[in-house]
Amino acid sequence: MQIDKKIAVVTGASSGLGAAISTALVENGARVYGLARNKNALDELKKILGENFISVEVDISEEKAVTKWISKTFSEQCCPDILINNAGIGSFGKIDEIPTTEWLSMVNTNINGMYYLTSRMVPFMKQKIDSSHVINIGSILGTMARAESAAYSTTKFGVRGFSEALFKELRDFNIKVTCLNPGSIDSEFFKSSGIEAHQNMLQPQDLAATVIHILHTPDNMLINELTIRPLNPRKP
């Protein structure tokens, strides 16, 4: 895919990997709708990226809000080319200590939000002659779980399953689906999860470059799943 002049939607765009992906897409000529709950952070990113970044304050776990935004933004004359389902939250702890509210919050954002966006955007992508691409950001913990990650791993294993089924469902419509499973990332995600981020973690801009590489693959070539992890993940 040639990214120049394509229309992209990136969730969780206000910081970390989402901001890095949005930046890389704009730098490659795309028009990016950046979705997040943090309006101030989105506005700051827009100051940097300019008119090709459109900030959208929305909580993707709220189905009605997602449906309303998509219906007023896209049409037969304006179809999205790229969807990056990046938004995700994580909370870690023993299964008998994790509050139900935190479990549901992860499911609603990491799984339901991805479903709301994808299910409502795919009909527009099906109308396109050129190929479209859905990239779902999974996790290394969606390929192998560890202790005290039951809630988060459940959602990320779900992202993998969703991606695999979607790939088989949409390939005949010229829609690519990729699941990208990163290891630990030096981003706000870990800070908000109570885990100290450090420079040996994957850097958001490096993963964003990988996303651009995935999008740039020839029309009849698909990277349907990719796992990336730091070589030496321990804190220096």
From TrEMBL:
Keyword Oxidoreductase: yes
Keywords: Oxidoreductase
SUPFAM superfamilies reported for this sequence: NAD(P)-binding Rossmann-fold domains
Pfam families (alphabetical): adh_short
Cleavable signal peptide: none
Origin: domain of life: Bacteria
CDD domains in alphabetical order: SDR_c
Family recorded in the similarity comment: Belongs to the short-chain dehydrogenases/reductases (SDR) family.
Protein name, as recorded: NAD-binding protein
